[in-house]
Write a structure and sequence with these properties.
about 170 residues; two-stranded antiparallel sheet; elongated
Length: about 170
């Protein structure tokens, strides 16, 4: 699988990233991984993973949110030319704005931004919590449609008798 993984060692923090977000290191050229090495596609890695700090389920959540952001917005949330520049982008830059025509609802953007927080403690506690937030937001949207539909039915139920009464009065006057 072409996009399955890359390697960048501690000495390779400034390893240039290609346009696809992959470093120039080659996973298949290595006999074994080494302690402190990075495995994966850097543009999808959580900041703590790039810094070789402890990774948790919140790190996976960050990667998931990068992929979801890209799928929804047509661009990756962070862009950089090297691993060290990517770490800096995570810490100091807001995510790249959506590509034209790829805007997502505000509730969904808020969830994504929380999942992309630089500090893992500001992300959801786990993937279940993130998925629950996504489902809740979707259900909220559906409820809004139902409420809008119910309001329209209520308005019609009020207006139709009034219109019929006016027509009846006009017909009797003529």
């Amino acid at each position: 699988d072409e996009g399955s993984g890359l390697e960048s060692t501690q000495d390779g923090d400034d390893d240039p990233l290609s346009e696809s977000g992959r470093s120039s290191g080659r996973l298949l050229d290595m006999a074994l991984t080494r302690t402190g090495s990075l495995m994966g596609t850097p543009l999808y890695m959580a900041p703590e993973q790039l810094l070789r700090a402890e990774t948790t389920a919140r790190s996976d959540q960050f990667s998931f949110c990068v992929a979801l952001y890209e799928a929804l917005h047509g661009v990756r949330p962070f862009s950089a030319g090297s691993v060290s520049a990517l770490v800096e982008a995570h810490a100091r830059q807001a995510p790249v704005p959506p590509a034209p025509g790829h805007e997502a609802p505000k509730w969904l953007r808020r969830i994504l931004l929380r999942g992309l927080a630089h500090d893992p403690q500001h992300r959801f506690a786990n993937m279940d919590e993130l998925v629950a937030a996504l489902e809740s937001g979707e259900n909220r949207r559906r409820r809004s449609y139902w409420m809008l539909g119910a309001a329209a039915v209520g308005l019609l139920a009020t207006l139709v008798p009034a219109v019929l009464e006016v027509r009846s009065a006009n017909a009797q006057a003529a």
